[in-house]
Amino acid sequence: MEQDQPFIPWAVSRPVWLVLVLSLVAMAGCAVGPDFERPETEMPAGWAGSTAAVGAQAGESTEASLAEWWTVFQDATLTSLIERAVESNLDLKLAEARIREARAARGVAASAFGPTADATGSFRRSQATGNGPVANQYQAGFDAGWELDIFGGTRRAVEAADADLQAAEEDRRDVLVTLTAEVARTYIELRAFQQQLDIGQRNLAAQERSVELSEKRFQAGFVSSLDVANAKAQVATTTAEIPLLEASVRQTIYSLSVLLALDPAALVEELSPPTAIPPAPPTVPVGVPSDLLRRRPDIRAAEAGIHATTARIGVATADLFPKVNLAGSIGWQAGDLGSLFDTASRFSSLGPSVSWSLFQSGRIRSNIEVQKALEEQSFIAYRQTVLAALEEVEDALIASEKEQERRHALVEALDANRKAVDLATQLYSQGQTDFLSVLDAQRSLYSSEDALAQSTRTVSTNLVALYKALGGGWAAELAAQK
Predict the structure, then answer these.
(1) Nearest CA to 23 among 153, 146, 156?
(2) Is residue 421 part of a domain?
(3) For position 421, which CATH number holds?
(4) Residue range(s) defining the domain that contains residue 449
(5) pTM for this structure?
(6) Tens of pLDDT along 443-466?
(7) Element (H, E) at 102
(8) CA atoms of 194 and 248, how far apart (whole Å)
(9) Do the domain assignments include residue 9?
(10) Cα separation of 443 and 19, whole Å?
């Protein structure tokens, strides 16, 4: 009688021990490739342009004041347009779809951490010779596999996918910043065109009165018909400019409608009544240059791009090392279908496998160099983005400063031209000057009024550009997520 063999846990549980050991190795292993380090960027201590024109100290900056910066214009219609644009703009929806794409791609990368399982089934009918017996074979089972991430290739892939997701989120914020600025700029231009149209119509009325005055003086024999012709020519010139302004008003309304994802004419009734150009706020919190690194979405997206390319170096490097897989299967095999799932028909297997690409190192190393070159490009792109951001702020600061100087001069010119028109008209009616003096004064008045309206628009749009350059407008994102 045979003696029972002693119970040896290691012998019985060796596959289980193997799984545990390899799992511990995988968890303890370091991911190959370089770790991401935030780029060190030297930023100026302050702005080269003067901040006095926007009424702010160089170091003054509050996130709250930049969050919904458009409210400083105190225009309810502008605020409403921006809120509606955030809800419906198609560029913003496209950016949101890209976030969902990046999130799904991250899930694909993370799925490599877990095991896979497949169900199989087959039927085979065979005959050894022409007169031999026919044999049937039924088979069903499950195959499972698990690639252990010992060298961190999967971890690096997930890290890169996380960075891609972060970049997609920052791209959406950048679209949001651009959208709010574009709506504000277009709205200000609309009100400026409407004001220019009003100026043109008022000047046209004044010039028509000058025609009546010159005709009366001609009929009285005080002047020649040349004065009447000159007066009518001036009326015709001003009349010709009005349709262009009317077209600009309507086209600007169309642009706002499209920004809100509406039919071009959807806002015509709402926005046709003219109102004043939204005045520039007295102060703008410009902060310091280093604030841009954490506030500007395009800079943050460029930084995430560096992170993604750095992680992909690790993904490529992991191909230099062997792949360790744990495979197992369980199934049933029988000659007839009725006994397929009997205990005697069952079979199973479990064990590790190792694969190593020994003769493809040239391809793998070339791929590593490709990823390193992409990382270098991302660093360059990051630096370009930072420099462009600094330039945008400096451009907006100098433009604001000089445009406000120009506007002050235009205000003085407008006052002088109004007095000149009144005086020239009075002298002409008294016969003390010719009609050309009246025409010149009227032309100068119309030109200065129109230039002042355009300058008022430019002052406000320059500040919109400054808010955009500073990366303001994040509160709209929070409102859209509620």
Answers:
(1) 146
(2) yes
(3) 1.20.1600.10
(4) 27-115+150-481
(5) 0.84
(6) 888 889 999 999 999 999 999 999
(7) helix 90-110
(8) 9
(9) no
(10) 91
